[in-house]
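Structural prep section.
Before we set up the soaks we want a predicted structure of the protein with zinc ion in place, mainly to decide which crystallisation condition to try first. Input record follows.
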Amino acid sequence: MLKRLLPLALAAASLPACLAQAPAAPADQPLKAIPYSPSLDLTSMDRTVDPCVDFYQFVCGGWRKSNPIPADQASWSVYAKLANDNRRLLWGILDQDAKLTHRTPIQQKIGDYYAACMDTDAINALDIKPLQPELDSIAAIKSRDQLAAFLREGASRRGLYFLMAGAEQDPKNAGTMIVGVEAGGLGLPDRDYYTKTDAKSQDIRDHYVAYMAHLLVLSGESQTQADADAAATMKIETNLATASLTRVERRDPYNTYHPMKIADVDALIPGLQLPAYLQLQQVPTSVLSNVDVAQPKFLAALQTELANDPLDNLKAYLRIHALNAAAPSLSTSFEDAQFDFYSKFLRGVPQMQARWKRCEGQVDRNLGEALGREFIARDFAPSTKQKVTVMTEQIEQSMQQEIQNLDWMSPETKQAAIAKLHAVRNKIGYPDKWRDYSTLTVERNDYYGNAQRSRVYQQKRDWAKVGKPVDRTEWGMTPPTVNAYYNPQMNDINFPAGVLQPPLYDPREDDAPNYGNTGSTIGHELTHAFDDEGRQFDGQGNLRDWWTPADAKGFEEHIDCLRDQYATYVIVDDIHINSKLTSGEDVADLGGTLLGYEAWQKQTAGMHLANRDGFTPDQRYFIGMGQWACENERPENQRVNAITDPHSPGKYRVNGIVSDMPQFASAFGCKAGQPMVAAKACKIW
Ligand SMILES: [Zn+2]
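Run finished without errors. Recording the C-alpha cells verbatim:
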C-alpha cells in the first residue's frame, strides 16, 4: 500500500494510443524500435508566436496542431505518445513470448498472461460465470457477523471492499513496516463528486447510478430491483464520501497519521472485526499496538453504515463493487458498460482501446517487473544510465548550492536540509534486484484466474512486509513506465527506463535540450523532497519537523506567491486551478527548471556553445524544457483533472514557470509588462 508517491504526471486514466506520426509501422502492428523524434523538435514549434507572449504556444503550437487526440484517449501529449510507442514495443515482446516454444519461466508467465487475455472467445463464453461464486457468497450473507466473515475471508482475492488495509512505512519510524488502514469504497473518482451541488455534478451522479443499475441488470437482476439497489448504494457511498478527507486535506501528512492500538481501532469499527482479519493475514501481534488509521472519521462513518443500514442494502453495495472490480476480466458486455461510463461519459473518450493495449496494461500491472526485465534486456543502454547518473549528481550539487545561498533560511535549517539532500537515494532505469514471481501460477486458458491469483500474490507479498525492515531498493513504478516520482517516506527519486528515451532523454542531442527536458525532470523530483508536503519528512523518511518555526513560516510565504499565481489560471470553462492541490507540483516544476538550468550551466562552463537553428544555447535549454509538456486534452477530462490531478495543465507548467525566471526573460529578451514576465516573480529554491 503505497501512501505517498509524487509522480511527474498523473498516470493517465487511459494511457496513450495512436500513431499519427509513427511512420515506422502501421498503427496496429507491434514495434521493434521506437520511431525517433528529437528532444528539441523544430516542427513542434509555432514560430509565428512571440515567445514573450505565449511561450507554450511558441514551443508546442506545431505539435498540438499535428497531434490530434486519438479516438481511444482522454488526452494526448509528448509523454503519452512515447508511452504509446513503448506499449507497442512491449506488445511485440508479449506477442513473441506467447508464441515461443522454449521459454524461460518469465517468458511463460508474461506470454501466457497476455495470450489468456487476448482469448476473447473463451472470456465471452464464460460471461459472468467466473464471478458467480463471489455473487453467491454475497447472496448467502444472513447476518452482520456473516458479512464481516465474508469480507475477511475473500479479502486476499479482492480487497476489503469498503476500505484499504495493508503494509505501510511507519510515518514516525520509516525503517519499519506497520499496518495501515486507509479510506476507500467510492466508485466515483473523488469524494467531491458526491458533495458538490452544481448541475454538472448532479448529472454525473445520475449517470453513475444508472451505470451501477446497468451492471446489476447485466448480472441478472430486474431493472426495478437494480434501480433500488443502485440508489441504496449511492446513499452509502455519499455517506462515506462526506466523511472522507479532501485531496487538499490529505496533502498534509499529519492529517492522515493516527497511530492507534488495534483494540482502539476495533472499538471504532467493531462491524469489520479487524483483529480477526489481521490474524488471517498472519500479521505478527507485536505490531498491533501501532496501527496507522489514516482517516478515523471515515471509519466511524463506515461503522454507522455497517451497523445501521439494512443488510440488503449493504449486500447490494457489495454486488455492485464486485461487478465493477471484475468488469475488465469479464465478458465484453461488462467491459463495454464500464467503458461507457468511466471513459466515454466521464472523460469524453469516443472509443475503447484495442484489446492488445488493454492486455499489455494488465501484464504491466500484474507482472510489471517480469515484463520490465524483458524490456530492459532489449531496450536500455548502459550508457544512458551512466549519463543520467552524472546529470542527477550535478543537479543534487546545484540543489546544495541553492540551499546554501538562500537568504530566507537559517543556518540550522540549511544544515538539516543538506543532510536530507545527501540522504536522497537515486534510482535510475530499473531495480537492482528483480521481483520474484515464482510463486504466481499463470495459466494460458484462465484469464480470470490469472487476475485473481495475481491479486492474491500481491496481497500476500504486501502483508509479509509487516513487522520487517523496509526494503529501500523497491520501486513504485515498473521499468517501462514513462513517468518519474519522488517518495518522501523512502526519500528516493526514481526514473524508470521508459522515461529515459527520446524525445525526453535524447543521446543524439547536445546538452541544452537534454538538461532542459530530463534535467528539469530530475530537478522536479528532487525538489519534491523540499516542497510543502515533502519538506515535512527527514532524510530517513520520518515525519519529523526539522525546520525552525521562522523558516517554516518563511517557506510557506514563498509558496503563497506560487499559489496566488496559479490560482489565476483557468483550466476549462470557468474552472480555475485549485492551487492548494497543485502547489507541491508547481513548486517542483519551478525548482526543477532552475536546477536543470544551473546544472547545465556548470556542465557547459568554459565551452564555446554555438547557436543552432537560429536559437542561442540558453533559448535551446528553455525550448527543450517546454517541449516535454506539449499536450491536447478533451474538456471532459480537463474537468475530471481539475478535481483529481495535483499537476497543473501543461500550458501553465511551462508558461507559469518561465514567467517566474529572469534567466528565461534574458534568454528571449522579454520585457516587464509582457505576459511571460510575471509582475511578481516567485522564487522558492
Ligand atoms: Zn511531481
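Observations: Confidence is low (pLDDT under 50) at residues 12-25.
Flagged for discussion at group meeting.
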